[in-house]
Amino acid sequence: MFEIKAPATSANLCCGFDTFGLAVTLYNTFKVEKCDKFIFDGKEEDINNTNNLILTSMLTTCRFLNKKPIGVKVEVKSDVPSTRGLGSSATCVVAGIIMAYKVLNIEVDIDDVFNIASSIEGHPDNVAPCIFGGTTLSYKEDTEFKYYKIHTNKKYRICAFIPRFKLSTKKARNVLPDKYSREDVVFNIQRASLLPLSLERGDSEFVKDALQDRIHEPYRKELINGYDDIVNLTKKYGFVGTYLSGAGPTIMGVYEGNINLRKLDYDIKKLKDKYDLYPLKIDFDGVKY
């Protein structure tokens, strides 16, 4: 038996649409043992079947390795809520790939894991931080997926404001326009250029400026009840900034120093729209196996 522990991830970081991502200290855990068939046990409905992302990713990897699949029994502890913009699918994809290597007794090639996972997901912005930890910039060059780790000052903390409703990525994609003005594109380029250096230096004034967007958040926030209430609360409590996690609906707050999280949670509970507060840190290690 072995265990794989994959962190939740938060993509975009506001200005870095489909580019930036970071891993946080919230995990899906997969306990695996060899078996004569495929058995999956977890609380999420999309895990308790043989057409789940864990198995399909494992089988894809077996084909990549040109090896016959071996049956497994997988117990999944899901602490990363699904369809909330926190990379739950990326944890399943990454775990399934690593699972294939482990049950076949093949040394894990982490760069191959990244490329296989990016191909399955269709984009690398969640799988890169899930695998490598910390904050990442990732992209596709021709047919090759690439990533770069951004050094992030460890003084920053994250609060996830997770609503009790789901938002499909497809719906969040469909609200985006087909074209953007030059002004809006330049606005995002400026801030996406600023974010990595300001995160590394811990210059919160510039991090605050960088956590702005005109490409996706102005359109997606209209799908998220309570968005303005949460953002206004974070301003009241002195957060550096907020952004939509992935396609939403989770809102991430970036802060430093001490914030009265108990009082903040009390104020959140008074809002019309129900959100759960998750105090988190950046996971700098990535997937463990």
From TrEMBL:
Q: Which controlled-vocabulary keywords does the entry list? A: Amino-acid biosynthesis, ATP-binding, Cytoplasm, Kinase, Nucleotide-binding, Threonine biosynthesis, Transferase
Q: Can you tell me which residues bind ATP?
A: P81, S82, T83, R84, G85, L86, G87, S88, S89, A90, T91
Q: Where is the GHMP kinase N-terminal domain?
A: 63-134
GO terms (molecular function) for this protein are: ATP binding; homoserine kinase activity
Q: Which HAMAP family match?
A: Homoser_kinase
An example of a Gene Ontology BP annotation on this entry? threonine biosynthetic process
Query: Pathway of this protein?
Result: Amino-acid biosynthesis; L-threonine biosynthesis; L-threonine from L-aspartate: step 4/5
- Record field: catalytic activity: L-homoserine + ATP = O-phospho-L-homoserine + ADP + H(+)
Of which family is this protein a member? Belongs to the GHMP kinase family. Homoserine kinase subfamily.
Key word Hydrolase present = no
Q: Which residues form the GHMP kinase C-terminal domain?
A: 202-255
Q: Name it.
A: Homoserine kinase
Lineage from the top down?
Answer: Bacteria, Bacillati, Bacillota, Clostridia, Eubacteriales
Q: Quote the EC number.
A: 2.7.1.39
Q: What is the annotated role of this protein in its UniProt record?
A: Catalyzes the ATP-dependent phosphorylation of L-homoserine to L-homoserine phosphate.
- On whether Cell inner membrane is a keyword of this UniProt record, the answer is no
- Chief subcellular location equals cytoplasm
Q: Where in the cell is it found?
A: Cytoplasm
Pfam families linked to this entry: GHMP_kinases_C, GHMP_kinases_N
Q: Which GO terms describe its cellular component?
A: cytoplasm
Enzyme superclass (EC): transferase
